[in-house]
Design brief:
Elements lengths: L2 H18 L18 E8 L5 E9 L2 E7 L5 E8 L7 E8 L2 E6 L1 H10 L1 H18 L7 H14 L7 H9 L9 H17 L3 E3 L5 E3 L2 H50 L3 E7 L2 E7 L1
Antiparallel strand pairs: 1-2, 1-5, 2-3, 3-4, 5-6, 7-8, 9-10
């Protein structure tokens, strides 16, 4: 065994031992309140084609026992490897931390993740972002905005369908799931989708979703034209106000000039002599 293979074997054994100190329980969940206490590892070995072949259950001396997989998905065959075989595989470690799963491939990535405490940093940062998102006031979209979104997605995919949860994820990202008012939000958008279905713009699907109908094209088109007319009227009204202000300003300027001419302009004077007498004439 060369130096490189020996070092690789040594490093893999040490990291496997570290991971097995927090070995996964026989049964666990990755979501819900129970998952908030998760902090364990699952160690897989990938073959040269990067296919998961072995899940490690125990390391004792030079023997590594676990389950072997024939298809890369189901680990059903009892198997024992020797530590000398480790260099033929690549470590693939899943760290289940809280409701997250952090996956690393190779010795170096797993070592760096533990060294810098990335799972803790990531979860702490996410909690901060979620708390900020929970304090944010969310704007609820009206039925036309919802219909326009479904219409746009249907143009991209004729089989597009949505549900309240999928719709909210598009509007607010998946963080809506952890908001205190998530039930109110879901009820609101469920009502919007049902209202669009009752108006004939949507129809229900066998997958308990909603998809667009042909009638929705008329609804969206009519609303777009109505909004265009409304914007045009606003522009006309704006120009009328601007013109009125301009004409008023001109009128005020002309009135001011007339007042100045009539009352404020100083009279013209002419000075001269009449015989030996000095006189001043004022033109009124």
């Amino acid at each position: 065994m060369g130096v490189k293979a020996w070092f690789r074997q040594f490093a893999m054994k040490r990291l496997i031992t570290t991971a097995l100190n927090k070995k996964s329980p026989a049964e666990f969940t990755t979501s819900g309140d129970e998952a908030k206490n998760n902090d364990f590892y699952i160690v897989y070995l990938l073959d040269r084609e990067a296919v998961p072949r072995f899940v490690v259950q125990k390391l004792q001396g030079s023997e590594i026992s676990g389950k072997w997989s024939l298809d890369g998905r189901n680990f059903t065959e009892d198997e024992t490897l020797t530590s000398s075989e480790l260099p033929d595989f690549t470590l693939w470690i899943h760290h289940h931390y809280r409701t997250w799963v952090f996956k690393t491939v190779g010795v170096q990535k797993f070592f760096l993740q533990r060294l810098f405490g990335w799972p803790w940093i990531k979860v702490a940062l996410d909690r901060r972002l979620q708390a900020r998102f929970n304090r944010k006031e969310l704007t609820r979209q009206d039925r036309i905005k919802v219909l326009e979104h479904i219409f746009a997605e249907t143009i991209k995919d004729s089989e597009f369908q949505t549900q309240p949860s999928r719709l909210m994820t598009h509007l607010y990202t998946a963080r809506w799931v952890h908001r205190p008012d998530r039930v109110d939000l879901e009820n609101y958008y469920t009502f919007i989708l049902k209202a669009l279905a009752q108006s004939g713009d949507l129809e229900t699907t066998q997958q308990h979703g909603y998809k667009l109908t042909a009638k929705a094209l008329n609804t969206v088109t009519f609303h777009a034209e109505d909004e265009r007319r409304h914007n045009d009227n606003k522009k006309i009204q704006t120009w009328i106000v601007i013109l009125t202000v301009a004409l008023t300003a001109v009128g005020i300027a002309q009135a001011g000039a007339a007042v100045d001419e009539q009352f404020l302009k100083p009279p013209e004077t002419f000075s001269g002599t009449l015989g030996d007498q000095s006189i001043t004439l004022i033109q009124k």
